[in-house]
Amino acid sequence: MELASLWRRVRHPFGSAHDAVPSRASGGNLHSTQATESLRALLDDPQIPGAIRTGLAAEFARLEAMLGKLERGELHIAVFGRVSVGKSALANALLGEDAFTVGVLHGTTREAGQRRWQQVADSGVHLIDTPGIDELDGEARERLAWDVAGVSDLVVFVVDGDMTQRERDALALLARTERPLLLALNKADRYGEDERERLLERLREHAAGIVRAEDVVAIAAQPAPLKRLRVDVDGVEHAELVEQVPYLDALRTRLTAVVEREGKTLAALNASLFAGRVADQVGTRIADARRELAGTVIRQYCIAKALAVALNPIPVADLLTAGALDAALVMHLGRVYGLPLTKTEAGTLIAVITAQLAALMGAIWGVHLVASALKGLSAGVSTVVTAGAQGALAWYATELVGRAAEKYLVAGKSWGELGPKRVVTEIVESLDRDSILREAREEILKRLRK
Prior knowledge:
The protein has 450 residues and is α/β, with parallel strands linked by helices. It folds into 2 domains: 3-281, Rossmann fold, CATH 3.40.50; 312-449, no CATH class. Helices cover 60% and strands 11% of the residues. The chain contains 14 helices and 8 strands. Strands 2-3-1-4-5-6 form a 6-stranded mixed sheet, sandwiched between helices. Strands 7-8 form a two-stranded antiparallel sheet. Helix 2 runs parallel beside helix 9 and helix 10 (317-336) packs parallel to helix 12 (381-410). The model is unreliable at 1-23, 99-123 and 363-384 (pLDDT under 50).
């Protein structure tokens, strides 16, 4: 199944019983295997240059961590929320132990912490507690959200009342990470039944389009103790506080259901999405490196062709020399982009490019031809007069041919949807001809003087 369609199918997996996705244990194993193979292939790809691996060291380290997570069959659930809404208390209540520090007056979690929760459907489920979203400034808060969500397979967003603007913004940010979200109203024991239902409806309104209505649940991770009067044997009344058991049934039921049904698939999708982003970065950096090298190659051929045309005293023969250099340039660029071209392919490509250039710039090529013919007149005097100008035009023509060929190669030896006419037109319009011709003349004359 295509990754994008599979992700759409499970990104909101907490549906009610009648629309739940049936158990896909074998499918989950397949998705996990596919993702594992994909990550391993990317990590071991010998075509990725060492410099690019060094520049993306953090991303490759995370890929290694994700690969290990997949191989161990782990699923990570992140708990997000504002300071003191009970994120750590919720994580502790789910774990059944005080693994995370709980602060009374202010949030005490300063960085993301992780603990194993339970084993469900062959998946080791881990909980990740995070700092309060208002303990960090905007930039740090956004970075934390992306970092933790990047290694989490689903997210529980915790609130303790109606959502603030900052909470709504954070929820929208998390939605952009494309992780399945569940919204939990904690400290629900503080509200009467009617008020609690109104709050849940209000939260569903805030989360519309981000969290499904049935995925907004009420919990009490650390309910307030009940005050009770006890009468002793002497008839004396004593007030005492009785600790209450956390109420997490709705949340625990949904989390367990999704892990059983789609846990491995979610973990595989998360890893695959991240691997896809890393692969895109690798591709971009390789393309940038090739583009820089291609620019150097094109400039070298511009100089060579300009000098060959300027110094060749034989009429029209200089144009033949120019054609040979253009073919060599195109074949050289093919090697730069890893798409080698035969002489025939290079000749065909140059013919297409030249035809479009002639249609756009016939006057220039006419001057080019006349200037070439003039070289045979006046005992070579015209050679001196025309060498700089004609060489500059040759330089410019090579720049156009090189850039057009580069577009063709970047598109995988295809003009793509634009077509050669559109591509050549865009290149001609994007290059500053006056600047190029001026630079070319200066460079040619400098070399001629030497």
